Amino acid sequence: MKKKEKKGGISNDWLNTYSDMVTLLLCFFVLLYSISSVDSAKWKEIVKSFNPTDKEVSQIVENSEGSLGNYDLEGGFNGDGEDTMFNDEFDELYYKLSKYVEMNGLDSDVEISKGEGFTFITFRNNIFFDGNSYVLKQEGKDVLDQLCYAIEDVSDSVKEIQILGHTSQASPTEPNEVVSDRFLSSNRATEVLVYIQKKNIIGPEKLVSTGFGQFRPISSFATKESRAKNRRVEILITKNDSIVRSLDNYYNEIYGVEANETQTENSQDTQ
Fold it and tell me: What residues does 232 pair with on adjacent strands?
């Protein structure tokens, strides 16, 4: 006679469900850990892959080390820094250049400002050129190399790059000789433009150079220190969709004074 099978035994089927749940939890925490530090460049590519028609990707999150790029140049854009949220691609230019200036102790020689649709850079005369010379110094070339690396990444969003050359009145009371003054400022601006153009980072039609001589001062000619502020090269980089503005508007926003007002004051001092 066949024996009846015993019923009521304990089943181990629940172990399969439990192990699946633990595995899923493990994968979830590994995923959280993997995205806890995001490389901004890689994250941007991921976002762009989902929005191939979108030219601008907003609010790109940097990694915890404040990575501002993948450049391996010494003193370049691969250092530590504060977390930054980029509003768009063009904003990266300002943050990268600011970080480079800070890391290399160039705060007294290079001033970088940012406004609506533009980045404005002021280079003190001694960083690019020796007195009465328009031959680029190696120090100036190194700085321009970093500028070019930063511009290359955002070149599609750049409308125009203006290089503005300025001299200063050598004497508090006597204006400079016109020909040498104008040529010196123009040649300096042109030298900077040519150096940038040779890097092939942006269309040459977007590059413009202008020499103002001593006639766009941002300080008075009264003292040696104030005259030194006027010896400078400026680079104005505008965004594609930015509103066309006059140079006086930029000067008023950057320096806090109208260039025409400073020029009038200097003319009165000379008289």
Answer: 124, 166
Q: Look at the pTM and tell me if it is higher than 0.70.
A: no
With CA atoms as reference, report the closest residue to 214 among 152, 159, 263: 263
The SS3 of residue 238 is: strand
DSSP codes joined into one string, 18-86: HHHHHHHHHHHHHHHHHTSS--HHHHHHHHHHH-TT-S----EEPPTT-------STTSS-S-----EE
Q: Name the pairing type of β-strands 207-211 and 158-166.
A: parallel
Are 71 and 149 in contact by the 8 Å Cβ rule? The answer is: yes
Note whether 118 and 250 are within 8 A (CB).
yes
Residue 11 backbone dihedrals phi, psi, to 5 degrees: -90, 145
> How far, in whole angstroms, is CA 59 from its chain's centroid?
17
Query: What is the tens place of the pLDDT at every residue in 241-254?
Result: 999 899 999 999 99
Task: Report yes or no: 168 and 225 within 8 Å, Cβ to Cβ.
Answer: no
For residues 141 and 195, the answer to whether their CB atoms sit within 8 Å is: yes
Angle of CA points 263, 267, 270, to nearest 5°:
140
Task: Select from 238, 218, 233, 202 the least CA-distant residue to 119.
Answer: 238
Residue 252 CB-density burial (10 A; 0-12 exposed, 13-18 middle, 19+ buried): middle
Residue 207: which of 144, 143, 124 has the closest Cα? Answer: 144
| Close Cβ partners of 108 (under 8 Å, ≥ 6 residues apart) | 124
> What CA–CA distance (Å, rounded) separates 180 from 185?
9
Query: pLDDT tens for residues 138-157?
Result: 999 999 999 999 999 899 99
Q: Which amino acid is at 39?
A: D
Residue burial 161-182, b: 16+ Cβ < 10 Å; e: rest = bbbbbbbbbeeeeebbeeeebb
